[in-house]
């Protein structure tokens, strides 16, 4: 059985396997899955489809469930799943984790190079040049190729055990690829980082949820890696480059360059931009080249690292004050330039967040013409006290978006009035509101920069479930002027829809019908579809049950809302603001005119068939997606939760159920299959 080469095979029935057969298969599956992880995450050259991968993964889960004694905490199935901890344990590093001496100035780097030459007694010094990654330095330890633990740097001697968080990063292997023999003990060092794009996406989500955004990708990566609950780490866009051996047993390696090549063979991801060099000129040109490239990279770098290649020379050079003499970081100087701030405008993002942006007299900052720079939020503008007409200093750090750093004082010059945030949204005129450090436009239903996102949300599965209306189609609709807000959706004829890219008679009719069919759905789904801030699926249900029809909710005061169990002041405010906003009133009135009348909901007092019952789903259902099944339960008054506990009434076990089934058995919770479930929700 070799799932590396032949991943797509038909499996024998689990019941027919002996323990020994199962053990062999589990081993082969793990090896296969890890190999395909390696091809996908490290080499970026996947060789199998998602479907085949999933099949292997599910088979492994099934075998581990049938033969629990074969479970291993480094199995691919165990990457996420550890319980949260109260604090991170301390762990002593296998070797001191040193820091780097660094400089901004060329002359300091020349001095470093001269020192190397003097101290290597006339032999040429070969260097390895690498980018200096701006992330979080960690140690990862393998014994006989098997993952043991991961730790933060801490004070260099003792760090914090972040093994469970490290395990969620799928780029980091749980077993090294076994090409050329594995060392009994290996401790390696690398930099965990977040990609620029992943960081931006994460911050958008955080702002949307009312959480403070991270200041930069490094803080985001560092904050994430020190989380106490690994579930908060899984799924975050984290990556790693390994760059040093801290400690190794049974070593045959003579140089850093060779070590990095060995990392590649072991499946430890390295950075491709490394180069060998000797002499100062080569160093300077690498520094120049990387500083030009830095904006094009997907991750942040803040300089280059110059390392002596030969381990023998390194040993002779030694360490001074916790920094090796054999390595040096040459940082990039942040690019700064002075220009005139012409105007401060306010930009509306896709989620409705309002950002003050400085419009500048165009200026060249390190080879890029800059004419706009972000000012983040009103407090920043006040703190920096920048006003139209002022001279300002612009920095373009690793980030693509340049920033106004400070005002350059010009004594005697008369200044204009300080900036203040408008009271109305510059894109649609709605009255804006503040939450934390940010302002938002509440008119998501029709505010142009927000409208595509809102239509996509309105049509999404858990909202009104309009199939055929995704991001591309919504964008096309808005671009072609077919819709300006969600109410316009109902005015579209099938003929109008034919104007959309990729639509023909049949698909246009289908989409038209799908839209029209959403006119009388339960109130809570409609409320969720409106995309009111802080109103997720559950809150929409709470609101629906409390107010029962849209009219009553529209008229509810902040007090009425706050007097409802589960509704706090923030939600109460978001809801009243939403319905008070003129633009939203207009859109709602037009929706009504088009015949959109959500069905009234019955209040909580009227018992629904599944009132108060708590369901947990495990495994695959044939007739419903997980979301659909959960929605059915909720529509009938029940609740679906993700894990089995004392309050669980039923565990619905589909095909290939997971460990929740065991939890149910252990806790004596009633287990039903899909057929029983179907009867229950139909009866
Ligand atoms: S080597 C002593 N290589 O920079 C040698 N470090 O400011 C060990 N860093 O704490 C470090 N990129 O987290 C090395 N290519 C690279 C690096 C790198 C980033 C970090 C590392 C270190 C910090 C020092």
Description:
This protein is an alpha+beta fold and 683 residues long. It is built from 23 helices and 24 strands. Helix 1 (19-42) packs antiparallel against helix 2, helix 11 crosses helix 12 (471-479) and helix 15 (523-529) crosses helix 16 (537-547). It starts with 18 loop residues before the first helix and ends with a helix. The structure holds 2-(butylsulfanyl)adenosine. Residues 98-100, 102, 130, 132-133, 137, 191, 243-244, 305, 324, 327, 329 line the site of 2-(butylsulfanyl)adenosine.
Task: Describe the protein's topology.
Elements: H1 19-42, H2 50-66, E1 90-92, E2 102-103, H3 106-118, E3 127-133, E4 136-143, E5 146-152, E6 158-160, H4 163-167, E7 185-194, H5 196-208, H6 217-225, E8 238-248, H7 256-266, E9 275-277, H8 280-293, E10 301-308, H9 311-317, E11 319-320, E12 323-324, E13 327-331, E14 335-348, E15 353-365, E16 368-374, H10 378-384, E17 391-396, E18 403-408, E19 433-435, E20 438-440, H11 448-459, H12 471-479, H13 494-497, H14 505-516, H15 523-529, H16 537-547, H17 550-555, H18 558-562, H19 569-580, H20 582-593, E21 614-618, H21 626-635, E22 639-641, E23 650-653, H22 660-667, E24 670-673, H23 674-682
Parallel strand pairs: 2-13, 21-22, 21-23, 23-24
Antiparallel strand pairs: 1-6, 3-9, 3-10, 4-5, 4-7, 7-8, 10-13, 11-12, 14-15, 14-17, 15-16, 15-20, 17-18, 19-20
Helix pairs in contact: 1-2, 11-12, 15-16
Bound molecules: 2-(butylsulfanyl)adenosine.
């Amino acid at each position: 059985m070799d799932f590396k080469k032949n991943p797509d095979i038909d499996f024998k029935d689990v019941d027919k396997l002996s323990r020994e057969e199962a053990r062999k298969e589990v081993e082969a599956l793990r090896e296969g899955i890890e190999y395909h992880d390696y091809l996908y995450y490290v080499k970026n050259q996947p060789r199998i489809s998602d479907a085949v991968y999933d099949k292997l993964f599910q088979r492994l889960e099934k075998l581990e469930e049938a033969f629990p004694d074969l479970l291993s905490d480094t199995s691919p199935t165990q990457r996420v799943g550890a319980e949260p901890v109260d604090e991170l344990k301390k762990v002593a590093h296998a070797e001191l984790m040193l820091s780097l001496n660094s400089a901004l100035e060329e002359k300091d780097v020349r001095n470093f190079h001269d020192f190397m030459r003097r101290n290597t007694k006339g032999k040429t010094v070969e260097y390895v040049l690498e980018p200096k990654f701006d992330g979080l330095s960690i140690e990862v330890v393998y014994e006989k190729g098997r993952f043991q633990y991961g730790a933060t740097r801490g004070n260099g001697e003792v760090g914090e055990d972040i093994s469970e968080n490290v395990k969620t990063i799928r780029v980091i292997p749980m077993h090294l690829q076994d090409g050329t023999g594995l060392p009994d003990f290996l401790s390696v060092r690398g930099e965990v980082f977040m990609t620029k794009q992943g960081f931006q996406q994460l911050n958008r989500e955080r702002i949307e949820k009312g959480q403070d955004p991270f200041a930069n990708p490094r803080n985001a990566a560092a904050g994430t890696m020190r989380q106490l609950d690994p579930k908060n780490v899984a799924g975050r866009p984290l990556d790693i480059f390994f760059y040093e051996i801290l400690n190794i047993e049974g070593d045959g390696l003579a140089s850093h360059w060779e070590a990095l090549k060995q990392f590649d063979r072991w499946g430890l991801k390295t950075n491709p931009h490394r180069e060998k060099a000797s002499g100062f000129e080569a160093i300077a040109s690498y520094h120049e080249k990387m500083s030009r490239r830095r904006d094009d990279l997907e991750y942040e770098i803040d300089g280059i690292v110059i390392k002596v290649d030969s381990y023998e020379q390194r040993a002779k050079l030694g360490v001074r004050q916790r920094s090796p003499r054999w390595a040096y970081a040459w940082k990039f100087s942040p690019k700064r330039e002075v220009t005139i701030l012409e105007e401060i405008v306010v930009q509306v993002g896709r989620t409705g967040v309002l950002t003050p942006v400085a419009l500048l007299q165009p200026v060249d900052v390190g080879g890029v013409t800059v004419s706009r720079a972000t000012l983040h939020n009103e407090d920043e503008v006040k703190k920096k006290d920048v006003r139209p007409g002022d001279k300002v200093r612009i920095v373009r750090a690793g980030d693509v978006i340049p920033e106004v750093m400070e005002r350059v004082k010009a004594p005697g010059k008369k200044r204009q009035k300080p900036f203040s945030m408008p009271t109305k949204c510059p894109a649609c005129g709605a009255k804006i509101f503040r939450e934390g450090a940010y302002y938002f436009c509440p008119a998501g239903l029709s505010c142009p920069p927000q409208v595509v996102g809102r239509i996509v949300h309105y049509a999404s599965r858990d909202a009104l479930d309009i199939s055929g209306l995704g991001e591309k189609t919504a964008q096309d609709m808005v671009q072609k002027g077919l819709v300006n807000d969600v109410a316009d959706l109902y005015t579209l004829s099938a003929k109008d829809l034919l104007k959309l890219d990729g639509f023909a008679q049949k698909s246009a009719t289908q989409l038209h019908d799908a839209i029209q069919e959403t006119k009388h759905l339960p109130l809570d789904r409609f409320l969720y579809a409106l995309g009111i801030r802080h109103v997720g699926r559950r809150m929409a249900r709470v609101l629906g049950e409390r107010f029962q029809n849209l009219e009553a909710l529209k008229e509810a005061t902040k007090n009425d809302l706050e007097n409802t169990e589960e509704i706090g002041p923030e939600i109460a405010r978001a809801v009243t603001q939403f319905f008070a906003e003129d633009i939203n009133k207009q859109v709602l009135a037009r929706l009504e005119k088009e015949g959109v009348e959500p069905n009234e909901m019955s209040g909580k007092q009227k018992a629904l068939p599944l009132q108060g019952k708590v369901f947990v789903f495990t495994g695959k259902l044939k007739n419903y997606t997980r979301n659909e099944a959960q929605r059915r339960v909720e529509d009938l008054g029940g609740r679906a939760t993700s894990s089995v506990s004392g309050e669980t009434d039923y565990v619905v076990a589909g095909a290939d159920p997971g460990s929740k089934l065991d939890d149910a058995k252990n806790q004596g919770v009633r287990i039903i299959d899909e057929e029983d479930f179907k009867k229950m929700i139909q009866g």
